[in-house]
């Protein structure tokens, strides 16, 4: 994940204290909610068997990993106003986790946005494909989105053959990795971030256009298909909006920072980078809100179903 490649001033301890309190207040219920959702998915074969749920399961897995690894490191920094332990190993691990999990999530969201078009408008076409073709179309992008970023950032941050990292222990993420001052920064920003964000935006705009166009056409889907289309479009729209509200401004600012550098851009960049943490913090609640049928089944799983008691009657 591209960030600014300059050395900013030390953060404000008061502002860090506020961020610590806010992040901690969101993290605890978010971890609890995510854990319960994951347990529900594990013990509910009917949910896992649906292909349209597989991508969400992978996204939730990455999100839970970020909640229990990356975000606690950020909370620890905001609490102490310094990276502890102040070692290169700690900085490398934190930076690799943060860049990998944030960028993998936005790439997974890009694939989910594209995949929803197949499930909504090309369901019959995919059902006519062979089992191998369906497996490849469905799982190959998920595997690629899951392994590409860990490998890429392992090479650029941990191995780092193109430069030597210099860490700043009073900055979040220990400053920035040195590869951002090389040509690898352009590749990272354009191909790993800007392109997935564009895919999310274009896929969602195209989805709205196709739904409206189909509604106005003479040949309309059945009532069941129309209900399924609205439901899946709503679920995608809520999730995508959360990603786009943060990632579009970040892409614009970081692209401008390649050619222009100013204190104002640095301040905006730092502010939006902090907002990235709210995506994993809010994602479990967004998923619950956007899937009413999931919430209904979830309540049944959590509290059980009441069964009516049949009393024997006596016939005189």
UniProtKB/TrEMBL annotation:
The keyword Cell membrane applies. Its main location: membrane. This is G-protein coupled receptors family 1 profile domain-containing protein. It is found in: Cell membrane. One of its GO terms (molecular function) is G protein-coupled receptor activity. Residues 34-287 form the G-protein coupled receptors family 1 profile domain. Coiled coil: none annotated. The keyword Transmembrane helix applies. It is a multi-pass membrane protein. SUPFAM superfamilies: Family A G protein-coupled receptor-like.
